[in-house]
Amino acid sequence: MKCVSEFSYDEFSLFHENLGEWNLEVPVPPVRRFFVAVDGLRELSGLQWGDGEPVMVLVHGGAQNAHTYDTVALALQRPLIALDLPGHGHSDASPYGASAVAGHARDVERAIEQLTTPPRALVGMSLGGLVSLVVANSRPDLVSSLTLVDITPGVNAEKAKHITNFVNGPASFDDFDALLARTIEHNPTRTVSSLRRGILHNAIRRDDGTWVWRHQQHPKSDLAAPDMGNLWEKLGELSMPVTLLRAMAAGSVVNDDDEQEFRRRCPHATVVHVQGAGHSIQGDQPLVMAELLDQYAT
Description:
The chain has about 300 residues and is α/β, with parallel strands linked by helices. About 35% of the residues lie in helices and about 20% in strands. Strand 5, helix 4 (about 125-140) and strand 6 form a beta-alpha-beta unit.
Protein backbone atom coordinates (compact mmCIF):
# COMPACT_ATOMS: atom_id res chain seq x y z
CA MET A 1 0.00 0.00 0.00
CA LYS A 2 1.34 3.38 -0.95
CA CYS A 3 2.61 5.41 2.01
CA VAL A 4 0.47 8.48 2.59
CA SER A 5 3.58 10.66 2.83
CA GLU A 6 4.18 9.84 -0.83
CA PHE A 7 0.59 10.60 -1.80
CA SER A 8 -0.32 14.01 -3.17
CA TYR A 9 -3.99 14.24 -2.28
CA ASP A 10 -6.36 15.33 -5.01
CA GLU A 11 -9.98 14.74 -4.06
CA PHE A 12 -10.94 14.14 -7.69
CA SER A 13 -8.18 11.63 -8.45
CA LEU A 14 -9.62 8.61 -6.62
CA PHE A 15 -12.84 7.90 -8.50
CA HIS A 16 -11.13 5.08 -10.40
CA GLU A 17 -10.88 3.24 -7.08
CA ASN A 18 -14.64 3.52 -6.55
CA LEU A 19 -15.25 2.23 -10.07
CA GLY A 20 -12.85 -0.67 -9.68
CA GLU A 21 -14.08 -1.74 -6.28
CA TRP A 22 -17.67 -2.08 -7.50
CA ASN A 23 -16.93 -3.16 -11.10
CA LEU A 24 -18.67 -0.09 -12.46
CA GLU A 25 -18.11 0.54 -16.16
CA VAL A 26 -19.41 4.08 -16.42
CA PRO A 27 -17.79 7.41 -17.28
CA VAL A 28 -16.77 9.79 -14.53
CA PRO A 29 -18.96 12.86 -15.04
CA PRO A 30 -17.66 16.37 -14.43
CA VAL A 31 -17.34 17.00 -10.69
CA ARG A 32 -16.55 20.31 -9.07
CA ARG A 33 -16.29 21.62 -5.53
CA PHE A 34 -18.43 24.64 -4.73
CA PHE A 35 -18.83 27.09 -1.85
CA VAL A 36 -22.09 28.90 -1.20
CA ALA A 37 -22.77 31.60 1.41
CA VAL A 38 -25.47 30.64 3.92
CA ASP A 39 -25.04 33.13 6.76
CA GLY A 40 -22.96 36.27 6.31
CA LEU A 41 -19.45 35.13 5.40
CA ARG A 42 -20.09 31.56 6.53
CA GLU A 43 -20.18 29.05 3.66
CA LEU A 44 -21.30 25.53 2.96
CA SER A 45 -19.28 23.46 0.54
CA GLY A 46 -20.01 20.33 -1.43
CA LEU A 47 -19.68 18.53 -4.73
CA GLN A 48 -21.70 19.16 -7.86
CA TRP A 49 -21.89 16.11 -10.10
CA GLY A 50 -22.65 16.59 -13.79
CA ASP A 51 -23.23 19.65 -15.93
CA GLY A 52 -27.01 19.68 -15.94
CA GLU A 53 -29.53 21.06 -13.47
CA PRO A 54 -29.14 19.07 -10.22
CA VAL A 55 -32.11 16.79 -9.70
CA MET A 56 -31.16 15.52 -6.25
CA VAL A 57 -29.49 16.77 -3.05
CA LEU A 58 -27.58 14.29 -0.86
CA VAL A 59 -26.80 15.03 2.79
CA HIS A 60 -24.34 12.85 4.71
CA GLY A 61 -24.31 11.63 8.29
CA GLY A 62 -22.44 12.93 11.31
CA ALA A 63 -18.62 12.83 11.08
CA GLN A 64 -18.85 12.16 7.31
CA ASN A 65 -18.62 14.41 4.25
CA ALA A 66 -19.93 14.70 0.70
CA HIS A 67 -17.50 12.06 -0.63
CA THR A 68 -19.39 9.34 1.24
CA TYR A 69 -21.75 9.31 -1.76
CA ASP A 70 -19.09 9.06 -4.49
CA THR A 71 -19.90 5.51 -5.59
CA VAL A 72 -23.65 6.21 -5.44
CA ALA A 73 -23.20 9.32 -7.58
CA LEU A 74 -21.07 7.43 -10.10
CA ALA A 75 -23.69 4.71 -10.36
CA LEU A 76 -26.58 7.15 -10.69
CA GLN A 77 -25.05 9.10 -13.58
CA ARG A 78 -27.45 11.97 -12.82
CA PRO A 79 -26.65 15.62 -12.10
CA LEU A 80 -26.80 16.10 -8.35
CA ILE A 81 -25.48 17.95 -5.32
CA ALA A 82 -23.71 16.30 -2.37
CA LEU A 83 -23.41 18.74 0.52
CA ASP A 84 -20.90 19.00 3.36
CA LEU A 85 -22.86 19.76 6.53
CA PRO A 86 -21.64 22.68 8.65
CA GLY A 87 -18.43 21.78 10.47
CA HIS A 88 -17.88 18.78 8.18
CA GLY A 89 -15.80 18.34 5.06
CA HIS A 90 -14.89 21.74 3.63
CA SER A 91 -17.85 23.65 5.10
CA ASP A 92 -17.47 26.33 7.75
CA ALA A 93 -18.51 25.40 11.25
CA SER A 94 -21.95 26.21 12.61
CA PRO A 95 -22.04 28.62 15.55
CA TYR A 96 -24.15 25.95 17.30
CA GLY A 97 -21.80 22.99 16.88
CA ALA A 98 -21.55 19.99 14.59
CA SER A 99 -24.82 18.27 15.57
CA ALA A 100 -27.29 21.18 15.57
CA VAL A 101 -30.12 19.69 13.51
CA ALA A 102 -32.34 22.78 13.24
CA GLY A 103 -29.40 25.12 12.63
CA HIS A 104 -28.03 22.84 9.94
CA ALA A 105 -31.47 22.66 8.33
CA ARG A 106 -31.54 26.43 7.85
CA ASP A 107 -28.15 26.28 6.15
CA VAL A 108 -29.22 23.43 3.89
CA GLU A 109 -32.37 25.33 2.91
CA ARG A 110 -30.28 28.33 1.85
CA ALA A 111 -27.94 26.09 -0.12
CA ILE A 112 -30.79 24.32 -1.94
CA GLU A 113 -32.31 27.68 -2.90
CA GLN A 114 -29.06 28.82 -4.49
CA LEU A 115 -27.80 25.58 -6.03
CA THR A 116 -30.94 24.08 -7.55
CA THR A 117 -34.29 24.94 -9.05
CA PRO A 118 -36.54 23.49 -6.36
CA PRO A 119 -38.38 21.40 -5.55
CA ARG A 120 -35.80 18.61 -5.76
CA ALA A 121 -35.39 15.13 -4.29
CA LEU A 122 -33.72 15.33 -0.88
CA VAL A 123 -31.78 12.37 0.53
CA GLY A 124 -30.38 12.38 4.06
CA MET A 125 -28.46 9.73 5.99
CA SER A 126 -28.35 9.57 9.82
CA LEU A 127 -27.74 13.13 11.14
CA GLY A 128 -28.27 14.36 7.59
CA GLY A 129 -31.58 12.52 7.54
CA LEU A 130 -32.85 14.36 10.60
CA VAL A 131 -31.67 17.63 9.05
CA SER A 132 -33.45 16.74 5.80
CA LEU A 133 -36.64 15.89 7.70
CA VAL A 134 -36.66 19.36 9.25
CA VAL A 135 -36.03 20.93 5.84
CA ALA A 136 -38.88 18.97 4.26
CA ASN A 137 -41.24 20.02 7.06
CA SER A 138 -40.30 23.70 7.23
CA ARG A 139 -39.77 24.24 3.49
CA PRO A 140 -41.88 21.74 1.53
CA ASP A 141 -41.57 24.03 -1.46
CA LEU A 142 -37.92 22.97 -1.72
CA VAL A 143 -38.46 19.21 -1.55
CA SER A 144 -40.19 16.99 -4.14
CA SER A 145 -39.48 13.78 -2.22
CA LEU A 146 -37.66 12.80 0.98
CA THR A 147 -35.49 9.72 1.38
CA LEU A 148 -34.17 8.88 4.84
CA VAL A 149 -31.20 6.51 5.04
CA ASP A 150 -31.22 4.32 8.16
CA ILE A 151 -32.63 6.97 10.47
CA THR A 152 -35.92 7.77 12.17
CA PRO A 153 -36.80 10.21 14.96
CA GLY A 154 -36.76 7.19 17.29
CA VAL A 155 -33.00 6.75 17.12
CA ASN A 156 -31.40 7.64 20.45
CA ALA A 157 -27.97 7.65 22.08
CA GLU A 158 -28.24 4.01 23.17
CA LYS A 159 -29.06 2.75 19.67
CA ALA A 160 -26.24 4.79 18.13
CA LYS A 161 -23.59 4.28 20.81
CA HIS A 162 -21.44 2.00 18.62
CA ILE A 163 -21.16 4.90 16.17
CA THR A 164 -20.65 7.70 18.67
CA ASN A 165 -18.01 5.63 20.49
CA PHE A 166 -15.99 5.61 17.28
CA VAL A 167 -16.68 9.25 16.41
CA ASN A 168 -15.81 10.45 19.92
CA GLY A 169 -12.51 8.59 20.00
CA PRO A 170 -9.04 10.17 20.12
CA ALA A 171 -8.90 13.87 19.32
CA SER A 172 -5.90 13.28 17.07
CA PHE A 173 -3.65 10.49 15.80
CA ASP A 174 0.14 10.35 15.74
CA ASP A 175 0.23 9.26 12.11
CA PHE A 176 -1.92 8.05 9.25
CA ASP A 177 -1.39 4.38 10.07
CA ALA A 178 -2.85 4.87 13.56
CA LEU A 179 -5.93 6.50 12.09
CA LEU A 180 -6.28 3.75 9.49
CA ALA A 181 -5.91 1.01 12.09
CA ARG A 182 -8.72 2.43 14.22
CA THR A 183 -10.95 2.80 11.17
CA ILE A 184 -10.33 -0.79 10.08
CA GLU A 185 -11.19 -2.00 13.56
CA HIS A 186 -14.53 -0.18 13.40
CA ASN A 187 -15.29 -1.30 9.82
CA PRO A 188 -14.07 -4.92 9.55
CA THR A 189 -16.21 -5.72 6.49
CA ARG A 190 -14.84 -2.88 4.32
CA THR A 191 -11.79 -3.10 2.09
CA VAL A 192 -8.65 -1.40 3.35
CA SER A 193 -8.42 0.63 0.13
CA SER A 194 -11.93 2.03 0.59
CA LEU A 195 -11.21 2.96 4.21
CA ARG A 196 -7.94 4.59 3.26
CA ARG A 197 -9.73 6.60 0.58
CA GLY A 198 -12.39 7.64 3.06
CA ILE A 199 -9.77 8.88 5.51
CA LEU A 200 -8.01 10.93 2.85
CA HIS A 201 -11.33 12.63 2.11
CA ASN A 202 -12.29 13.07 5.76
CA ALA A 203 -9.09 13.84 7.70
CA ILE A 204 -6.26 16.35 7.48
CA ARG A 205 -2.57 16.19 8.31
CA ARG A 206 -1.44 19.02 10.56
CA ASP A 207 1.93 20.75 10.45
CA ASP A 208 3.29 18.62 13.31
CA GLY A 209 2.54 15.42 11.37
CA THR A 210 -0.48 14.37 13.42
CA TRP A 211 -3.85 13.65 11.84
CA VAL A 212 -7.31 14.88 12.86
CA TRP A 213 -10.78 14.26 11.48
CA ARG A 214 -12.11 17.28 9.60
CA HIS A 215 -15.17 17.46 11.83
CA GLN A 216 -12.94 17.57 14.93
CA GLN A 217 -10.77 20.48 13.82
CA HIS A 218 -13.28 23.12 14.89
CA PRO A 219 -13.56 24.33 18.51
CA LYS A 220 -16.64 23.21 20.39
CA SER A 221 -19.50 25.70 20.59
CA ASP A 222 -21.07 26.87 23.86
CA LEU A 223 -24.13 28.36 22.14
CA ALA A 224 -27.48 26.67 22.68
CA ALA A 225 -28.67 25.11 19.45
CA PRO A 226 -32.10 26.06 18.06
CA ASP A 227 -34.88 23.68 19.11
CA MET A 228 -35.57 21.09 16.41
CA GLY A 229 -39.05 20.34 17.77
CA ASN A 230 -40.81 16.98 17.82
CA LEU A 231 -39.48 15.17 14.77
CA TRP A 232 -42.11 12.44 14.88
CA GLU A 233 -44.77 15.13 14.58
CA LYS A 234 -42.85 16.82 11.77
CA LEU A 235 -42.66 13.49 9.92
CA GLY A 236 -46.40 13.02 10.26
CA GLU A 237 -47.07 16.43 8.70
CA LEU A 238 -45.24 15.66 5.45
CA SER A 239 -47.27 15.33 2.26
CA MET A 240 -44.51 14.67 -0.30
CA PRO A 241 -43.39 11.09 -1.06
CA VAL A 242 -41.27 9.73 1.80
CA THR A 243 -39.01 6.67 1.73
CA LEU A 244 -37.07 5.00 4.52
CA LEU A 245 -34.10 2.86 3.49
CA ARG A 246 -33.56 0.63 6.51
CA ALA A 247 -30.25 -1.21 6.83
CA MET A 248 -30.74 -4.83 7.88
CA ALA A 249 -27.17 -5.87 8.81
CA ALA A 250 -25.26 -5.29 12.03
CA GLY A 251 -24.64 -1.63 12.71
CA SER A 252 -28.08 -0.30 11.81
CA VAL A 253 -29.59 2.14 14.30
CA VAL A 254 -33.21 1.49 13.30
CA ASN A 255 -35.14 -1.33 14.97
CA ASP A 256 -38.58 -2.87 14.43
CA ASP A 257 -40.26 -0.51 16.89
CA ASP A 258 -38.82 2.47 15.01
CA GLU A 259 -40.10 1.12 11.72
CA GLN A 260 -43.56 0.45 13.15
CA GLU A 261 -43.79 3.98 14.53
CA PHE A 262 -42.47 5.38 11.25
CA ARG A 263 -45.26 3.62 9.35
CA ARG A 264 -47.86 4.80 11.86
CA ARG A 265 -46.75 8.43 11.75
CA CYS A 266 -46.37 8.53 7.95
CA PRO A 267 -48.80 6.00 6.45
CA HIS A 268 -48.04 7.03 2.88
CA ALA A 269 -44.30 6.36 3.28
CA THR A 270 -42.43 3.49 1.63
CA VAL A 271 -40.05 1.39 3.73
CA VAL A 272 -37.35 -0.62 1.97
CA HIS A 273 -35.17 -3.18 3.76
CA VAL A 274 -31.61 -3.16 2.41
CA GLN A 275 -29.92 -6.49 3.03
CA GLY A 276 -26.18 -6.69 3.52
CA ALA A 277 -25.88 -3.11 4.69
CA GLY A 278 -25.08 -1.62 8.06
CA HIS A 279 -25.81 1.96 9.04
CA SER A 280 -23.88 3.39 6.09
CA ILE A 281 -25.89 1.93 3.22
CA GLN A 282 -24.03 4.15 0.75
CA GLY A 283 -20.78 2.49 1.79
CA ASP A 284 -21.95 -1.12 2.16
CA GLN A 285 -24.40 -1.35 -0.75
CA PRO A 286 -23.92 1.74 -2.95
CA LEU A 287 -25.20 0.12 -6.15
CA VAL A 288 -28.38 -1.06 -4.45
CA MET A 289 -28.83 2.40 -2.98
CA ALA A 290 -28.39 3.99 -6.40
CA GLU A 291 -31.08 1.72 -7.84
CA LEU A 292 -33.45 2.62 -5.01
CA LEU A 293 -32.81 6.34 -5.42
CA ASP A 294 -33.51 6.01 -9.14
CA GLN A 295 -36.85 4.50 -8.18
CA TYR A 296 -37.94 6.60 -5.21
CA ALA A 297 -35.96 9.88 -5.13
CA THR A 298 -37.82 11.80 -7.79
